[in-house]
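User: Can you predict the 3D structure for this chain?
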Amino acid sequence: YTRLMHIIFQKPSKRKLITGLFSKIESRFDSKKLESAIQEVITSHGANPTDLFNDQVDRGCQVFVCSIAHEMKEILRLRSYSIPDNQEIPVTIVEAACATSAATSFLDPVCIGARKSADGALGANNPVNEVEGEASDTWCRETGDLKPLVKCFISIGTGNPGKKAMEDNMLKFVSKTLPELATQTEQTERKFIAKWRQHYDEKRYFRFNIDQGLQNVGLAEYQEQGLIKAATERYLNHQALKFQVRDCIQNL
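Assistant: Here is the predicted structure, written as structure tokens:
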């Protein structure tokens, strides 16, 4: 992200933006730049951009990303591995990366076959529940009793968004309040900790998330890279956080 964000977000798309309440959503940035940047990263690591995300090779680390299907407004899990009896969506590495990165209003949806897909933030901006479901499908398909099998659960956020009042203006309510409600992460976190309270109490569940400094930094604001680094360093240097990192390392 640090290396690519200025390439992707430096210049808004030349397409005319339509901002009326009943207008079609137009992306602000060129999606081809995102695709090209992802292809470059993949190639630099010795892979081919046309390689399948799930190439049927068994690896030690299983990876999945979340995207949202336009047609049914449901979360899709795009996997680098197979789960018996689960419908698999064949995608390339590039398609999976673009699909999970295609933030609505920032970038165009991605076409995977005949389907349209956008980033999973509108349904799984904090994907802990998706991780829980995926782990259950992988390790305890018959019982779904996952907790006894989990030694350590780690959740990493992108910064606490802070608390904001609901907008009274209709346009601002639609453009600001609704997306904030749809992409909330901290409420998901509170509910998840309540459900996994024993793991949290026994220092087997960890949530790392910068608490202050990034409330007003948007996805496309690459100019704020210095602030992002400063807030991250401040967070990591807090003594309480150092103890949490130590406990997490010892658990792993």
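The chain has two domains: 1-124, 148-252. The mean pLDDT is 81.
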